[in-house]
Structure formats: structure tokens, C-alpha cells
Amino acid sequence: MTPFGSVTVIDSNTKLTAPAPVPEPTSAPRPRFAGEPVQWVSVSAPGPLSAFARSSVQIFSGSSSVFPDLPAFAWTLIELSPLPFFAPQTFLSLKGGLPVMYILISPSASTTINDGKPSKVLGLGETVATAGPAPSAWFGVCMQDRIMRDAALWSKEIADAIAAGGDDPGTWTAFAAGLQSLGTPARPIYILDHVGRPFPEAGDSQLPTFTVTTSAGSSSVTPVNGSTGIALPSAGTVQISFASAAHPMLAGVESAGGSFEGSYQLPANERFVQAVDVNAWMADRDPQGTGAGLQRWNANSFLDPIPDGNPYYARLVDDMRLTKGGGGGIGFAGWAFVKESLLDKTLQWPLVPGQDDTTFLKLVKDLNDHSSQVRLLVNQFIQVENNTFDDGDKVLAALWAVFAATFPFTAFGAVATDPAGFGVLFGCMAAANFLIDTSLTIDLLRAIGEASKSMVDDLAVLNANIAKWSPYPATTADNPLYTPPFEIAGITVDDIIHFGVYHQKFVVGLTAGGEYFGYVGGIDINPDRIDSPIHRAIFPYHDVQARLTGPALKDLIQSFADRSSFDQATLPFPVPASVEAKGSHLVQVARTYYKPPTSTGFSFAPSGETLIHRSNLAAIRAARDFIYIEEQYFTPDDEYLDALCDAAAHTQALILTVCMQNGQVYGPIRRTDAIAKLQTAWQDRIFKVGALVRRHLNPTPAKFVNLGRGTLAEDIDANASTILVTPASHVPDAPFWVFVGGELMQATAKTGQSVLPDQVTLTVNRGSIATRQTWGSKVDARRQGSPVMCVNVPNIYVHAKLMIVDDVFLSIGSANMNRRGHFHDGEINAIALPQNLKRDPLNPARVLRCKLWGEHLGLTPEMGLSLLADPLSAVPYFDRPWLAGNRWQPLDWAGEPSDTTQPSFTSSDSLMSDLLTAAIGSVEQLDKRTFWSVLVDPTTFSDPNPTSAGPEV
């Protein structure tokens, strides 16, 4: 099969133009690569132009100035998108993804295609247009990675892919040879920016300078529209250095390879280079001795992102077992280590489903028995001043018991399993004074309140050195927004002044064979994290972890050693002097630690650390194509929010994936205000906010075999707001979701149940105009006897804390993007740039984004890697309906937006809300400032805007 063929005859008069953007019509629709720069090929003589592949076709028209040397003209643009399934191996072999060809014609040329063509599909070689006297027609190619290429490069890449795919090159060989000879020998060397457009960016205040060295000597140049003005020599080597960059990174466009902190040698016959100053992307470490012993970044490392709990646990178990034997060891730092299974507290849960020998205790015992040194730093929630406690009572014990018993049920009516729920918990502790004044021992308090206690106790039986409680030392005095005394509803709380936690979730390991490895991200040893990318768990849960190898591991191991020294714990193995190179990723290990007002905090971070916050801000400010964020709460600090708003001036798209409901006390207020501010700033750009909703879950037949299954007892029309269902005994209590003849409805109330005729009336919401077609089949009349199925449509709890920018920057770890995560708690992130930039096939930012978008949009991760390689063209997939398999839906998918201006605890804190209401009388009477600024979202003196407490004041 011949997948590609010639477009037109290439002769000595055919010319390359300077880069010019794909023109954009004045009204929708837009070309896929509208505005992207292309080196057009100007057709030299009248004659036909043919389809370069079997393609789908779109036609656009407009009138504008396209080329700098030509006046404005009325143009027609023909977009040819190849159909890859006709030659899948060739298309899979293409380095930059699928090529899209554009044919641009002026009025002196003509086209045989129009919008009335029924199929809008052209066969290979079919005539697309007829050129008139030059200049009247031009063609060029854009590829999914959006890196600009000239005809010599894209034609060669297609030729190489045809050969790799084993297809017949047909007429492509001669056509490509003609394109590759264009402009010879005067083809200039081009410098492209991090997204693949000509350097410098429009509007850059400081023009970059490069040094180009050939056999003829060295020249200092500032590119003009990407061109250095220096022709690629016919022989000899070419060295390029980014002279004006503080920390230059250069990489090839055709061949894999690059250089960091040095010059880059162009491979033979290649003339395109990407360049970036890393100084603009990764902030420097905090001053005044913080992060002692840690590098600003580590080259030649490797970051392998792992979406969701099941794949992570499987990799972790394999690595744990490799530490068995003399010299091996593993260290865990976690927010929680939970022994009990999610649904049965009498059972332990295996990290690998179905493998009973992979419970955490059994794994640790096996390692301990085989001379592997295992060490755990376990976050300690409860810190009581002076070893006394008179702010609680038996009711407090009951609240702790509720917390401990419901700890894993994050998404289904229990307590949030992160600092938000932690803040609610301490609010309940203070509120308990209203009800009873009996004393409660600290030991009992810890026994029922520390989720990790049973695990720690059992590990102590194996080896007293394995687990060490790790209390976070920050107090209310370290919070500039704290005003003493600490009161809730008039009650002074003086026995609890620590409201911070070690929220870090990371692992460091050394195999018996001497290989170092590590993990960092958002996943604890906790049974509620068990889920896969298809999210069929009863309690769906989404998170991301990353496996690290290479020199960056030294900083991760040092971070474990810092905490171990502070807590007087022993190490699983010594901190290595260095770790050998393992890849081509530049990785920064970034941390958050609190800053006290005057005294010294941590010896290893006396002034606190804010590197996660500052590197994330740098990446937002450097963004050009898109910013993608996954965030549990999205209650950002002011500086972070302002940066996202300002990014609308220089970035094309911002996409947020959050929880359907914010799980913080007063968090809905902050999140709603933040989203509203972003909507105002991004009104002319792409801005999407949504949450994840899994496929429906049929009820478990616990009492009745046919629970949830019934029929419609009478006809209904398309406007009906109530339905009559039989048999009543099969219908659960409202609220729930219900399919009626394929149409999904919300059942909001159940009334009128009777024995005869055994019918029940359901009040139903059939969706607004905006949601009807996304819920289920069309809203319509339904006949008596239509099947009725009562179902659950669970939200997928988003616990990830990550940001991806322009498919080059990745920040992943434990830090929520709020004050608590950026300034207060103990957090750790891995931040990465591919040293070979976008063209790196193992680029972690692009690989993870494609996997995540594939997962969320209802595709397999592998399909995501091919279908979603172009981030901007993939954005419309987010608008696909839930009915079509798209898990990503807007926040108002279930009806009205879930976040309002009320201080709702949401479903994840419903029990605590009830208890607080009972204790205080009304949740709305709570002191907003105390709860938000001290309990839920505290800060410390490293916060550059400590006087701004957000909209709650």
C-alpha cells in the first residue's frame, strides 16, 4: 500500500517562504492549526495539486495578509487530515504524530472541492486544486507535536516512516527528494522555542542571542523569525550555544538528543534546534541555607509517571522485593499507613488485588526476615501540649471513633482524608466542650484517632526500629493570620496548637544489587487508593505517583534523611555521595516547609521552603500553549491565582480537573470565587473546569435479587416530572439515579408507596437543556412497561496534585495548590523538564498528559498517546457527553453547580457537619476566619501575601 504521494511537480523555480502562520477565518470553524507558523512551499507553475494521502477535508476562506512580501488577498485554505487506519504502521512510525497538509490558494487558482461535497474524503492523488501563474498556490505541513518544520524535514520524516512501516513509497521518494533540494545551499539554521515556534516569541522584552560555530568560525546571532541567517554548511560540524541563557537547554527536532548547560552539535544535515532557558522554568532553592545539600536540579535523571493506585502498588511491590538481602533497604514517608481493608476492618488489604502475600505487613515482615532495612516516618496527627488534655471528653472520643472508622470513605459520605478533614476534626474537638466535660486520656485519644496506629503497633512487634511517629512542629504562632487566643464559638482551645501535618508521600529504596529507586506523588499506603485507570472501583479514586531513578534520587534520599535526623530515626541506608545517570530528564526535588516568625524551624530548612510554589509560578508565567491542572480542592493562594489569570494574555488554554465537590469547610466559597475570577480573565481563551464521573454502578442485590429493577407503571410524556414505578419493594430510598427506557434521570424523592398495587411515585429531574444529552438518551415520552433501573453514578475522587505546561513541564507530588500546600505543611514534589524537550519520546509531561486525558475521556491510556498527542486539537474531546463514555464533565453536570457561597461541608464531610451542627447549633455561625485561616488553609511567614486571607474575611 502507498500511504503518501506527491502533491505537485517540484522544479528549480519552486520556493520556500519565510515562516508564516496558517491563516484564520473571521468566523468559526477554525483550521486545526490556525495561527501556527509554517514554512510554505510556493508552487512555481500552473497545474494540479493532489491529495498527499487519503484524507478528510475541510475548507476555509478569508481575506488577509498571509505573507509579508505579498499584499492582502482573498484566500481559500484546504485542510487535509490523513486517515491513519489505511496505513497504521506508517503513521505509528511518524515521530511528530499525524501530519496535516494545508493547501492555500489565491483567486487566480481554483479548487474542485466545496462544502457541498457529500463525503469530504479524498483519495490519495485526487486533485485538490489547480494553481495559476505563481504566486497563486502554496502548501505546507503541520504535525501533532506543533513543532515547525520545513518541507525538507517533514518530507524526510514521512519517507522514514514509510520505510519503517514497510509500506510502498510510491511517488513519495521523488517528491521528497525534490522538497529536500529546495533552497540548497542557502537553507538557514533555525532556532525554535520550547513549543516549536520560531525564536524569539512575539513581544519578548529581551532578545535572545546564540553563538553558531561552523568551520568558517563563530558568529553571535539573534534569530529573526527563527532564522539565524547562517546557512547550513555542506560539510563539517555545527555547534550552537544559547549565549544569553543563564541555564541553556538545547535539543534537536529530527534526531533525539540535546544538551544542558553547554553547546549542542547539530546532527549531519539537520538545521532545526529547540532552545529554552531553564532559569525561566525552575526556581532556585530558598535562600539562607534552606535545602542544604540539595541541588537546584539534577540532570540525566528519569521520571516515570504512574496514574492511579493499582499500577503504582504493583510497581512498588516489585521494587520492595528487590531490597531483600544484605545491603538493601527501603524508607517510606507518608501521611497515613492504614492496615484495615476498606469494607471489612477485620481484614488487611493486599497492595496487589488477589495476592494475599502483598499486604503491607506481610511484605515488611518478609523484607525484615531477609535483612532488608525497612523504615517508616509516620505522620502524627495528635499533638497535645504539656501532655494534658482538657479540651475534650467522651463525645470527642466518639468523634475520633467516627473519623477512624470512616477514614477511607473519601467519596461516599464520610470524612475527607486530607488536611481539610483534619481541620474539621479539630473543630469538632473544640465543639465537644458544649456537650460534656468528662476527661479523656491522651492514649485513648491516639488509639482511636491515629489512623496509622494499628499498623505502627504491629510493625513494632516485628522490629522496634521500623516505624517512627513524626509530628509536624508548626504551631499557631507560626501563622501570621493567627490572632490569639484560639477560639471556636467562644471556647478557648489551648491544648491543641499544632494544625500542620507531614503531607509528603514518598519512598526511597536501595536494591540488594545496589540500584537506587524512589517514588513521589499523592498516593499513601491506604486502601481507598485502590483503583485502576478504568475506575471501576466501588469507591472510584484518581491519583498519580511517579517513579524516580538517577541523580535526582540523592535529593529524595537526603529529604528522607533530613526528616529522620529531626525525628531521631534511623536510616534504611546511608545517603549516597552520588547516583549514576539513568535518563535524560532534568528533575527538581522541591519541598514545602513552614517558616517561623523569629525562631529557627527545621535545622535543614531554618527559613522554610517554598520551592514548589515558586517553580509552579515560573512555569505558569512561561506557558504559551496550555496549562493543565489536577487538584483536589483548587482553593489557590492569591499569587498563584493571579498568575493563572495573567496567563490568559500569553497562553491558549487552561484546563482544570477537580473534585465534583470541594471537601473543605468554606472551601466552596474560595473555589467558586477563584473559578469566577479565572472565567473573567480567560473569556477570550479556552478555559475548562470539570470533574470526573464514572460509568453507572448497578445496585448490589443485598436483600432482594432484583433490587433496583422495575418497570414504568404508566405512560409519561416528555415533560413529566414524576414517574410511577412498580414494584415498590425494588426501589431504594431517594436520592438516586434511574434509567427509564435508556433515559437517565435523577430521582429526588420517593412518595406514595403502597402494598397494592405495589407502586411508588418518584419525583425526577430530567436535566436542564445543557445536561439532557450528556446524561442519557433523548428526553422523550416513555410507555408503560418501559424498564426502570435504579443506579448509582459515583463521582471519581480526584486526589492528584499536578500541573503540566506546554508538554514540557511537569510538577507532581503531595502539595495542594493552596496556602497549606505551598507555605505551611511538609510537602514534596518532583518537577521535571525533558532534556531533549518536546521531541523526547519519553518526555514525561507529554506521556502523562496523554495517558491522563485518555483515561478521563474514556479512552485507554495507549489510545491517548496517539489520539491526543496534539494538546490544543484534543481540547474539544472534553465536550463529549458522559453517555459516549467521557468521564470528564463540567461541575454542573448533575444539575446546579455543587459549590455555592454557603460553608458547606459537602458529602465528604457530612458526618462532621452533622456533629458540628449538633454541638454548635448552626454551622453557619462558625468563625470563618478561625476555621479557614487557622484550621483549613493556614499559612506561615514565608507567604508573600500573609495579610490576604481570601474571600472569607
Describe this structure in words.
With 953 residues, this protein is α+β, with helices and mostly antiparallel strands. The protein folds into 5 domains: 166 residues, Distorted Sandwich (Glucose Permease (Domain IIA)), CATH 2.70.70; 93 residues; 289 residues, 2-Layer Sandwich (Endonuclease, Chain A), CATH 3.30.870; 157 residues, no CATH class; 84 residues, Elongation Factor Tu (Ef-tu), domain 3 (Beta Barrel), CATH 2.40.30. The protein is built from 20 helices and 47 strands. α2 runs antiparallel to α3, α6 runs antiparallel to α7 and α11 runs parallel beside α12. It is globular, with a radius of gyration of 30 Å. The termini are far apart.
Mean pLDDT: 86
The shape is globular
Percent of residues in helices: 10-25%
Which architecture of the largest domain does the CATH hierarchy give at level 2?
A: 2-Layer Sandwich
Q: Which CATH class of the largest domain is shown?
A: Alpha Beta
> Based on DSSP secondary structure assignment, what is the total number of beta strands?
47
The named CATH superfamily of the largest domain? Endonuclease Chain A
End-to-end distance, in Å? 68 Å
- How many domains comprise the coordinates? 5
Q: If you compute it from the alpha carbons, what radius of gyration comes out, rounded to the nearest whole angstrom?
A: 30 Å
**Helix- and strand-based class?**
alpha+beta
Uncertain regions spanning at least 5 consecutive residues: 392-427, 429-439, 898-925
Helix count from the secondary structure assignment: 20
Summarize the main sheet.
Answer: 18 strands, mixed
CATH topology of the largest domain: Endonuclease, Chain A
